[in-house]
Amino acid sequence: MTTLYQQIAEKFLAELQNSPNVDSQKLGALKLLFADSNKLRPDDLVKVFTSALEDEVK
Fold first, then answer.
1. Dihedral (CA of 50, 42, 21, 10) sign
2. Helix pair 4-17, 24-35: axis angle to 10 deg
3. Which residue from 2, 25, 50, 57 could staple onto 6, CB 3.0 to 4.6 Å apart?
4. Structure pTM?
5. Considering just the CA atoms, what is the radius of gyration of the chain in Å?
6. How confident is the model over 24-34, as pLDDT tens digits?
């Protein structure tokens, strides 16, 4: 049985997967964060969304 935290994470990731603003690399990093058993920290999310990809403008 999935926990409430897992259900929220799955729904959140499903919504982001349909977003044109979130690329597959960021989505993969988010999946790893949510799969981790530790509590999610805001700093972890900031790192994912502020990291520039090779083809993005810094």
1. positive
2. 180
3. 2
4. 0.72
5. 12
6. 888 999 999 88
